[in-house]
Amino acid sequence: MVVIGLGRFGRSLALELADEDTEVLGIDENPEVVQLLSGSLTHAVRADSTKEDALRQLAVHEFDRAVVAIGTDLEASILTASLLISFGIENVWAKATSEAHGRILTQLGVQHVVYPEHDMGQRVAHLVRGRMLDYIEFEDDFAMVKTDPPTAILDVPLSSSAVRTRYGITVVAIKRPGEGFTYATPDTVVRADDTVIVAGRTRATERFSELR
Ligand code: ADP
Protein backbone atom coordinates (compact mmCIF):
# COMPACT_ATOMS: atom_id res chain seq x y z
CA MET A 1 0.00 0.00 0.00
CA VAL A 2 1.29 3.48 -0.90
CA VAL A 3 0.15 6.56 1.03
CA ILE A 4 1.05 9.86 -0.65
CA GLY A 5 0.86 12.99 1.48
CA LEU A 6 1.53 12.45 5.17
CA GLY A 7 -0.41 15.38 6.63
CA ARG A 8 -2.87 14.84 9.49
CA PHE A 9 -5.16 12.54 7.48
CA GLY A 10 -2.45 10.62 5.58
CA ARG A 11 -0.35 10.16 8.69
CA SER A 12 -3.16 8.77 10.76
CA LEU A 13 -4.19 6.45 7.90
CA ALA A 14 -0.62 5.22 7.28
CA LEU A 15 0.00 4.58 11.00
CA GLU A 16 -3.26 2.66 11.36
CA LEU A 17 -2.37 0.46 8.37
CA ALA A 18 1.13 -0.11 9.72
CA ASP A 19 -0.36 -1.02 13.11
CA GLU A 20 -2.32 -3.79 11.41
CA ASP A 21 0.89 -5.14 9.86
CA THR A 22 0.24 -3.80 6.36
CA GLU A 23 3.42 -2.86 4.48
CA VAL A 24 3.21 0.87 3.90
CA LEU A 25 5.29 3.07 1.63
CA GLY A 26 4.67 6.64 2.80
CA ILE A 27 5.64 9.52 0.51
CA ASP A 28 5.79 13.23 1.33
CA GLU A 29 7.78 16.13 -0.06
CA ASN A 30 8.38 17.56 3.40
CA PRO A 31 11.58 16.04 4.90
CA GLU A 32 10.50 16.78 8.48
CA VAL A 33 7.29 14.79 8.04
CA VAL A 34 9.23 11.90 6.50
CA GLN A 35 11.76 11.96 9.32
CA LEU A 36 8.97 11.87 11.90
CA LEU A 37 7.43 8.71 10.42
CA SER A 38 10.59 6.89 9.33
CA GLY A 39 10.57 4.50 12.31
CA SER A 40 6.85 3.69 12.13
CA LEU A 41 6.21 2.80 8.46
CA THR A 42 7.87 0.11 6.33
CA HIS A 43 9.33 2.92 4.19
CA ALA A 44 8.94 6.68 4.48
CA VAL A 45 10.45 8.56 1.56
CA ARG A 46 10.84 12.21 0.57
CA ALA A 47 9.62 12.79 -3.00
CA ASP A 48 7.46 15.08 -5.11
CA SER A 49 4.55 12.87 -6.13
CA THR A 50 3.65 15.07 -9.10
CA LYS A 51 6.82 13.87 -10.87
CA GLU A 52 6.39 10.65 -12.79
CA ASP A 53 10.11 9.76 -12.61
CA ALA A 54 10.14 10.12 -8.84
CA LEU A 55 7.17 7.75 -8.47
CA ARG A 56 8.64 5.21 -10.90
CA GLN A 57 11.95 5.21 -9.03
CA LEU A 58 9.99 4.24 -5.90
CA ALA A 59 8.21 1.49 -7.91
CA VAL A 60 4.85 3.06 -7.11
CA HIS A 61 3.53 1.75 -10.46
CA GLU A 62 3.95 -1.82 -9.16
CA PHE A 63 1.49 -1.41 -6.27
CA ASP A 64 -2.16 -2.38 -6.61
CA ARG A 65 -3.43 0.01 -3.95
CA ALA A 66 -2.60 3.66 -3.36
CA VAL A 67 -4.04 6.56 -1.37
CA VAL A 68 -3.66 10.21 -2.34
CA ALA A 69 -3.95 11.99 1.00
CA ILE A 70 -3.01 15.45 -0.28
CA GLY A 71 -5.90 17.85 0.35
CA THR A 72 -4.91 21.49 0.51
CA ASP A 73 -2.77 21.54 -2.63
CA LEU A 74 -5.41 20.84 -5.27
CA GLU A 75 -2.95 20.81 -8.16
CA ALA A 76 -0.64 18.32 -6.43
CA SER A 77 -3.61 16.09 -5.57
CA ILE A 78 -4.89 16.04 -9.16
CA LEU A 79 -1.49 15.55 -10.80
CA THR A 80 -0.64 12.74 -8.40
CA ALA A 81 -3.98 10.98 -8.86
CA SER A 82 -3.67 11.29 -12.63
CA LEU A 83 -0.23 9.61 -12.55
CA LEU A 84 -1.50 6.75 -10.38
CA ILE A 85 -4.41 6.16 -12.77
CA SER A 86 -2.08 6.22 -15.78
CA PHE A 87 0.09 3.56 -14.06
CA GLY A 88 -2.99 1.32 -14.09
CA ILE A 89 -3.13 0.96 -10.28
CA GLU A 90 -6.35 -0.93 -9.61
CA ASN A 91 -7.45 0.70 -6.39
CA VAL A 92 -6.77 4.38 -6.05
CA TRP A 93 -8.26 6.14 -3.04
CA ALA A 94 -8.15 9.92 -2.81
CA LYS A 95 -9.20 12.48 -0.25
CA ALA A 96 -11.27 15.40 -1.52
CA THR A 97 -11.61 18.68 0.33
CA SER A 98 -14.63 19.92 -1.66
CA GLU A 99 -17.32 18.58 -3.93
CA ALA A 100 -15.62 20.06 -7.01
CA HIS A 101 -12.32 18.45 -6.01
CA GLY A 102 -14.08 15.11 -5.61
CA ARG A 103 -15.78 15.45 -8.99
CA ILE A 104 -12.45 16.03 -10.76
CA LEU A 105 -10.90 13.03 -9.00
CA THR A 106 -13.84 10.87 -10.12
CA GLN A 107 -13.55 12.16 -13.68
CA LEU A 108 -9.87 11.18 -13.67
CA GLY A 109 -10.90 7.63 -12.85
CA VAL A 110 -10.18 7.52 -9.10
CA GLN A 111 -12.24 4.57 -7.85
CA HIS A 112 -12.70 5.68 -4.24
CA VAL A 113 -13.10 9.35 -3.39
CA VAL A 114 -13.45 10.10 0.34
CA TYR A 115 -14.53 13.31 2.05
CA PRO A 116 -13.17 13.02 5.59
CA GLU A 117 -14.04 16.53 6.80
CA HIS A 118 -17.53 16.46 5.31
CA ASP A 119 -18.28 12.94 6.58
CA MET A 120 -16.94 13.64 10.05
CA GLY A 121 -19.00 16.83 10.22
CA GLN A 122 -22.17 14.88 9.44
CA ARG A 123 -21.30 12.18 11.95
CA VAL A 124 -20.67 14.68 14.72
CA ALA A 125 -23.96 16.45 13.88
CA HIS A 126 -25.83 13.21 14.60
CA LEU A 127 -23.95 12.75 17.87
CA VAL A 128 -24.54 16.33 18.96
CA ARG A 129 -28.24 16.29 18.10
CA GLY A 130 -29.20 12.97 19.66
CA ARG A 131 -28.25 10.93 22.69
CA MET A 132 -26.11 8.49 20.73
CA LEU A 133 -22.74 7.44 22.04
CA ASP A 134 -21.47 6.58 18.57
CA TYR A 135 -22.88 6.56 15.07
CA ILE A 136 -21.99 5.16 11.63
CA GLU A 137 -24.16 5.69 8.57
CA PHE A 138 -23.81 3.40 5.56
CA GLU A 139 -25.20 4.05 2.11
CA ASP A 140 -28.89 3.69 1.38
CA ASP A 141 -30.14 5.19 4.61
CA PHE A 142 -28.82 2.47 6.93
CA ALA A 143 -26.99 3.15 10.20
CA MET A 144 -25.56 1.56 13.33
CA VAL A 145 -25.78 3.39 16.63
CA LYS A 146 -24.29 2.82 20.05
CA THR A 147 -26.70 4.02 22.73
CA ASP A 148 -28.13 3.53 26.24
CA PRO A 149 -31.19 1.24 26.12
CA PRO A 150 -34.67 2.78 26.62
CA THR A 151 -36.61 1.50 29.65
CA ALA A 152 -39.24 -0.15 27.42
CA ILE A 153 -36.84 -2.93 26.40
CA LEU A 154 -35.29 -3.62 29.82
CA ASP A 155 -35.44 -6.83 31.85
CA VAL A 156 -37.23 -9.05 29.30
CA PRO A 157 -35.70 -11.13 26.48
CA LEU A 158 -35.33 -9.19 23.23
CA SER A 159 -37.74 -11.61 21.56
CA SER A 160 -40.56 -10.46 23.89
CA SER A 161 -39.90 -6.73 23.62
CA ALA A 162 -40.34 -7.11 19.83
CA VAL A 163 -37.87 -4.31 19.07
CA ARG A 164 -37.87 -5.04 15.35
CA THR A 165 -41.57 -4.55 14.82
CA ARG A 166 -42.03 -1.79 17.40
CA TYR A 167 -38.99 0.35 16.63
CA GLY A 168 -37.81 -0.89 13.23
CA ILE A 169 -34.33 -1.64 14.52
CA THR A 170 -32.33 -4.73 15.41
CA VAL A 171 -30.25 -4.96 18.56
CA VAL A 172 -26.95 -6.29 17.23
CA ALA A 173 -24.72 -6.30 20.29
CA ILE A 174 -24.77 -5.56 23.99
CA LYS A 175 -22.15 -4.57 26.53
CA ARG A 176 -22.48 -5.13 30.28
CA PRO A 177 -20.58 -2.72 32.55
CA GLY A 178 -16.91 -3.70 32.71
CA GLU A 179 -17.25 -6.28 29.93
CA GLY A 180 -16.73 -6.25 26.17
CA PHE A 181 -19.44 -6.30 23.49
CA THR A 182 -21.15 -9.63 22.71
CA TYR A 183 -23.70 -10.49 20.02
CA ALA A 184 -27.32 -10.11 21.04
CA THR A 185 -29.63 -13.14 20.65
CA PRO A 186 -33.43 -13.42 21.04
CA ASP A 187 -32.80 -14.61 24.62
CA THR A 188 -30.64 -11.62 25.55
CA VAL A 189 -32.02 -9.60 28.46
CA VAL A 190 -30.91 -5.96 28.47
CA ARG A 191 -30.35 -4.27 31.86
CA ALA A 192 -30.47 -0.56 32.67
CA ASP A 193 -26.72 0.01 32.83
CA ASP A 194 -25.92 -1.91 29.63
CA THR A 195 -24.94 -0.28 26.36
CA VAL A 196 -26.41 -1.55 23.09
CA ILE A 197 -25.54 -1.33 19.40
CA VAL A 198 -28.57 -1.21 17.12
CA ALA A 199 -28.85 -1.29 13.32
CA GLY A 200 -31.62 -0.09 11.04
CA ARG A 201 -32.85 2.78 8.87
CA THR A 202 -31.10 5.99 9.89
CA ARG A 203 -34.22 7.70 11.23
CA ALA A 204 -35.31 4.58 13.15
CA THR A 205 -31.92 4.24 14.86
CA GLU A 206 -32.03 7.95 15.76
CA ARG A 207 -35.55 7.71 17.16
CA PHE A 208 -34.61 4.61 19.16
CA SER A 209 -31.61 6.39 20.72
CA GLU A 210 -33.86 9.31 21.75
CA LEU A 211 -36.28 7.07 23.72
CA ARG A 212 -35.94 7.17 27.46
P1 ADP B 1 -4.17 17.30 6.07
O1 ADP B 1 -5.31 18.29 6.09
O2 ADP B 1 -4.61 15.89 6.19
O3 ADP B 1 -3.05 17.67 7.04
P2 ADP B 1 -2.73 18.45 3.87
O4 ADP B 1 -3.23 18.59 2.49
O5 ADP B 1 -2.57 19.70 4.68
O6 ADP B 1 -3.62 17.38 4.57
O7 ADP B 1 -1.30 17.71 3.87
C1 ADP B 1 -0.88 17.03 2.79
C2 ADP B 1 0.55 16.52 2.90
O8 ADP B 1 0.93 16.25 1.53
C3 ADP B 1 1.58 17.51 3.46
O9 ADP B 1 2.39 16.84 4.43
C4 ADP B 1 2.41 17.90 2.24
O10 ADP B 1 3.80 18.05 2.54
C5 ADP B 1 2.22 16.72 1.29
N1 ADP B 1 2.32 17.09 -0.12
C6 ADP B 1 1.75 18.14 -0.74
N2 ADP B 1 2.11 18.18 -2.04
C7 ADP B 1 2.93 17.11 -2.25
C8 ADP B 1 3.64 16.59 -3.38
N3 ADP B 1 3.58 17.18 -4.57
N4 ADP B 1 4.39 15.49 -3.21
C9 ADP B 1 4.45 14.87 -2.00
N5 ADP B 1 3.82 15.30 -0.91
C10 ADP B 1 3.07 16.41 -1.02
TrEMBL record:
InterPro entries: NAD(P)-bd_dom_sf (IPR036291), RCK_C (IPR006037), RCK_C_sf (IPR036721), RCK_N (IPR003148), Trk_Ktr_HKT_K-transport (IPR050721). It comes from the Bacteria. Residues 130-212 form the RCK C-terminal domain. Residues 1-114 form the RCK N-terminal domain. It holds the Pfam family TrkA_C. Gene3D superfamilies: NAD(P)-binding Rossmann-like Domain, Regulator of K+ conductance, C-terminal domain. This is TrkA family potassium uptake protein.
